[in-house]
Design goal:
This protein is an alpha/beta fold and 251 residues long. It has one domain: TIM Barrel. Helix content is 44%, strand content 22%. The chain has eleven helices and ten strands. Strands 1-2-4-5-6-7-8-9 form an eight-stranded mixed beta barrel, surrounded by four helices. α9 links the parallel β7 and β8. α3 packs parallel to α5. The longest helix has 21 residues. The structure holds guanosine-5'-monophosphate (3 copies), manganese (II) ion and sodium ion. This is EAL domain-containing protein.
Length: 251
């Protein structure tokens, strides 16, 4: 109850902030993009991670307003980095199931791109496998609208949910992000290596780019590279950080 009360006014009080984590090329470690990660500076509690408040935002519907703020702030940040002369890389924004199903989403995205002037190719969305599979036809329509705008889509936490291969083929998605649960024990677990190999084969035949999440060691990186995984993200390269420090990785 106390959490919900303080969460209700957090947007108006300017307590949300965005962190950025680079997504790098596994071969040369060049920054290929940035994932945008929401944080809440809750007075008296420090920095709160999304897992501790996004479920509540989803329940009370505030996720729509907060989500629109995230998209707008990310687009403004991307434009600010471009104006500062930094190499333009796409920013990947997470969308929850409820945002994804919200009728106003497409208009909000279009308006934000118009008003900030960001090219659609510089924005991406990540949607979890579970959220994607929840709703059949409307999901396909929304994905098509986003894709037709020129915005690329990633399936987040791939491998942890239930996903129909038939849908995967029909959805206009461009990337899959291997959940970090399969990356963590890559060195010791032949099962996890087999899963990664299977995901790579699937992605190859569907022409999807693969991003490995949660890469923390050189050995994991080497294995992923051998498996043909093009992109990676994790503490080995950089932790999520505020815009100022994240920008240093673009410089
Ligand atoms: O850093 P990490 O604790 O940031 O993120 C935890 C989870 O919260 C991630 O799985 C991510 O998908 C989700 N998340 C982070 N930022 C956002 C956001 O802006 N919107 C939504 N819907 N989910 C987010
Ligand atoms: O280590 P193990 O053979 O149990 O791994 C399971 C699967 O993962 C195998 O089918 C193999 O092709 C693949 N694999 C495991 N390690 C590597 C590796 O270092 N390089 C490549 N290319 N494939 C590997
Ligand atoms: O959207 P998604 O669930 O993929 O969000 C990424 C989450 O993973 C964020 O909470 C982020 O802070 C976290 N994360 C990013 N890199 C690493 C890593 O190398 N190790 C671990 N344990 N978590 C990571
Ligand atoms: Mn994500
Ligand atoms: Na993930």
């Amino acid at each position: 109850f106390e959490l919900e009360t303080s969460l209700r006014g957090a947007l108006e009080r300017g307590e949300f902030t965005l962190f950025y984590q680079p997504i790098v090329c596994t071969r040369d470690r060049r920054v290929h993009g940035m994932e945008v990660l929401l944080r809440w500076r809750r007075p008296g509690h420090g920095l709160v991670a999304p897992d501790d408040f996004i479920p509540m935002l989803e329940e009370n519907g505030l996720i729509v307003a907060v989500g629109e703020w995230v998209i707008r702030t990310a687009c403004e940040q991307a434009m600010a980095w471009q104006r500062a002369g930094l190499a333009p890389v796409p920013l990947a924004v997470n969308l929850s199931a409820r945002q994804f199903m919200h009728r106003g989403l497409i208009d909000a995205i279009r308006r934000t791109l118009d008003e900030t002037g960001l090219a659609p190719s510089m924005l991406e969305f990540e949607i979890t496998e579970t959220a994607l599979m929840q709703h059949g036809r409307q999901t396909l329509e929304t994905l098509a609208q986003i894709s037709n705008m020129g915005i690329r889509l990633s399936i987040d936490d791939f491998g942890t949910g239930y996903s129909s291969l038939a849908y995967l083929k029909r959805f206009p998605v461009h990337k899959i992000k291997i959940d970090r649960a399969f990356v963590r024990d890559l060195e010791s677990s032949s099962e996890d290596r087999a899963i990664v190999a299977a995901i790579m084969a699937l992605a190859g035949s569907l022409q999807l780019t693969v991003v490995a999440e949660g890469v923390e060691t050189q050995a994991q990186l080497a294995l992923l590279r051998e498996h043909g995984c093009a992109l990676a993200q994790g503490y080995l390269f950089a932790k999520p950080d505020e815009a100022g420090r994240a920008a240093q990785m673009l410089a």
